[in-house]
Amino acid sequence: MQKALDAAWVHQVLTFPNPSVGAVVSNDQGDILGIGAHKKAGTPHAEVLALKAAYESLTNDTRITAIDDATALHTFLKEHHNQLFHNLTIHVTLEPCNHFGKTPPCASLIEALGLKRVVIGSFDESVSAKGGGAFLEKKGVNVLFGCLKEACDLLLTPFTCKEKNKPFVFFKLAVSSNGVTTGGIITSEDSRKMVHCLRDRCDLLVIGGNTVRTDRPILDARLCEGKAPDILILSKQNTFDRTIPLFGVPHRLVSISDSIDKINDYSMVMVEGGQGFLNALSSKIKWYLIFESPHEKEGNPIVLPVGLEKIFSQKIGEDTMSWYYKHV
Ligand SMILES: NC(=O)c1ccc[n+]([C@@H]2O[C@H](COP(=O)([O-])OP(=O)(O)OC[C@H]3O[C@@H](n4cnc5c(N)ncnc54)[C@H](OP(=O)(O)O)[C@@H]3O)[C@@H](O)[C@H]2O)c1
Predict the structure, then answer these.
(1) Do both 34 and 121 map to the same domain?
(2) Tell me: the pLDDT tens digits for 5-20?
């Protein structure tokens, strides 16, 4: 399950409005045959990609390799599984979906392939997709709930927030290896591209007045040809130079307010700022995404909020991207 979690975290937020989910197919000896993670809404779910990878490792049949479409993968696996999956287990961080959404139900695919055991992390509480575990149990599959549940529930937070009509809010920060966050570009093009992909999935970006005046940013998603989120400038002033590029981006709403309440009109919110912003908002924000460059920079190191627990880290080019959860 930890491997399923690690696979899923790579795509955290990028799957929104869908949940980030990971899955691992293994045999009785504990050999891992396939790992999959959901990458983007409308594309195959984690279970399907893990089953595809397992099929590839169990057969010499390369016809499946070029199939990317979710429905086509379901159909191919159902037609060609040849009892290959009968003694296998799938671990999945979230209960397999039980409905036709943009893709067919994973629960019925798992049942059709005859997997022996399904180990689930989090319950799916969503009205439309829940019930996959009970469906599989009724079909005689051995289903185990709650494996690494706390970690799987944490992974699921953006989706859980969406289901409760609450925004998922995270503070994104770029730091040098010695902790400096000021003085222009800090991380590599790879990290900045990742940030643009994340912005594309966000509907609001919150930024401090001082950063707007100092950096004169655009805050769009041009590096991944994505959509630019709306902007909330948190400020006690309303005298911003309207030639600052962020004001000129089409199809975007820019609000200026001394209150953060506007975030409640949105579902996925990224906050970007410096030390002052971190100090002002850290009591309200639980999630932090930090891109750390391997290079030093001149300046004062930032003081991070206390109580941050690192949940996941991965390399993005030469940088390291880490998700933190603030417990206090
Ligand atoms: N490395 C990174 O990821 C990153 C990201 C963003 C910015 N930065 C850098 O950080 C530096 C700026 O950092 P900073 O913390 O001084 O500025 P900031 O991020 O703009 O945050 C401070 C500003 O937020 C506004 N603010 C804070 N609390 C508020 C409240 N309760 N009500 C209303 N407005 C409030 C104020 O704007 P007003 O003064 O307009 O009232 C204040 O000047 C710049 O050098 C920038 O390049 C780094």
Answers:
(1) yes
(2) 999 999 999 999 999 9
Query: What are the backbone dihedrals phi and psi of residue 89, each rounded to the nearest 5 degrees, phi first?
Result: -120, 140
User: Would you say the CB of residue 214 lies under 6 angstroms from ligand 1?
Assistant: yes
In angstroms, what is the span from residue 252 Cα to ligand 1's centroid?
Answer: 21
Q: Please report the atom of ligand 1 found closest to the CA of residue 173.
A: 3
Residue 122 and residue 9 share a domain: yes
147 and 190 assigned to the same domain:
no
**Does the beta carbon of 315 sit less than 6 angstroms from any atom of ligand 1?**
no
Q: How far is the CA of 232 from the centre of ligand 1 (A)?
A: 12
Q: Indicate if 110 and 245 belong to the same structural domain.
A: no
pLDDT, averaged in runs of 10, over the chain (328 residues):
98 97 97 98 96 97 96 97 96 93 90 98 86 95 98 98 97 98 95 98 97 96 97 95 97 96 97 95 96 97 97 98 95
* Distance from residue 131's CA to the centre of ligand 1 (Å): 45
66 and 108 share one domain = yes
225 is catalytic: no
Nearest to 319 by CA among 297, 296, 291, 298: 291
pLDDT, tens digit (0-9, with 9 covering 90-100), for 255-303? 999 999 999 999 999 999 999 999 999 999 999 999 999 999 999 999 9
Query: Could you list the residue range(s) of the whole structural domain that residue 117 is in?
Result: 2-162
* Best probe residue, ligand 1, of 172, 211, 288 (max atoms within 8 Å of C-beta): 211
